[in-house]
């Protein structure tokens, strides 16, 4: 059940433990592990994905009113390979859940989809070993590198989500208009990164899945108590 607003205590923290506020009893720690899309590239802190998701959860509620701490461990420019390299550092914050949003820079560079898949598989396997619930956020390839590349890349996220039983957001940009010309009002001047309005649409679309992610953590805790 999603709690009423008065029962929610939402916290936004930096990924460095020394910079975080004191933990709240029973809080769920949700780590953003991605690239510039979730790091907040080109945006004021309050307009970035982390802050806007915090606000969305405050407005729409969290399961059982549980306090949520969002840890932003996303790094602009990160590839899936970079994610593998910094995973140990990020997991030092002991997250309960992870929003895994990587692959966009692989796509921009034309990285072999098999490499992208292998790197994401490594991260997901580690999350599984650490009993971290995951929301896997995908990107959708167009025809820039041909139909074979597109098909191979676009198969990565749904197939890995099925393999590991994670929640899935098929396309980070799924809430934005499909036609490039119609996306302009929601993008920064570089034509790639969402502006504040674009992030708001992304967050509204992804928010229910983040609520479901938090719910999974609470279910895990309840099961652990029973056992």
Automatic annotation (TrEMBL):
Molecular function (Gene Ontology), one example: phosphatidylcholine lysophospholipase activity
UniProt KW Signal keyword: yes
Pfam families: Lipase_GDSL_2 (PF13472)
Keyword Ribosomal protein: no
Entry superkingdom: Bacteria
Signal sequence extent: 1-20
UniProt keyword terms in alphabetical order: Signal
Cited Gene3D superfamilies: SGNH hydrolase
A Gene Ontology BP annotation from the UniProt entry: lipid metabolic process
CDD domains on file: Lysophospholipase_L1_like
SGNH hydrolase-type esterase domain: residues covered: 32-198
Protein name, entry field: Acyl-CoA thioesterase-1
Phylogenetic classification of the source organism: Bacteria, Pseudomonadati, Pseudomonadota, Alphaproteobacteria, Rhodobacterales
């Amino acid at each position: 059940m999603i709690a009423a607003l008065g029962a929610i205590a939402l916290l936004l923290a930096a990924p460095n433990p020394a910079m975080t506020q004191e933990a709240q009893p029973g809080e769920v720690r949700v780590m953003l592990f991605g690239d510039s899309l979730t790091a907040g590239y080109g945006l004021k802190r309050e307009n970035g994905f982390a802050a806007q998701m915090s606000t969305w959860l405050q407005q729409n509620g969290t399961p059982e009113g549980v306090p949520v701490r969002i840890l932003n461990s996303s790094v602009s420019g990160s590839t899936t390979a970079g994610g593998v390299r910094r995973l140990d550092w990020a997991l030092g914050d002991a997250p309960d859940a992870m929003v895994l949003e990587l692959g966009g820079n692989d796509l921009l560079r034309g990285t072999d989809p098999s490499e992208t898949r292998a790197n994401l598989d490594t991260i997901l396997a580690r999350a599984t070993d650490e009993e971290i619930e995951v929301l896997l956020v995908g990107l959708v390839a167009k025809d820039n590198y041909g139909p074979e590349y597109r098909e191979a890349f676009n198969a990565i996220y749904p197939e890995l989500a099925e393999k590991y039983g994670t929640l899935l957001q098929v396309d980070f940009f799924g809430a934005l208009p499909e036609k490039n010309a119609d996306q302009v009002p929601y993008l920064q001047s570089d034509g790639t990164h969402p502006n504040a309005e674009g992030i708001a649409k992304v967050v509204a679309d992804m928010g229910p899945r983040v609520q479901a992610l938090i719910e999974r953590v609470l279910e895990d805790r309840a099961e652990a108590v029973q056992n």
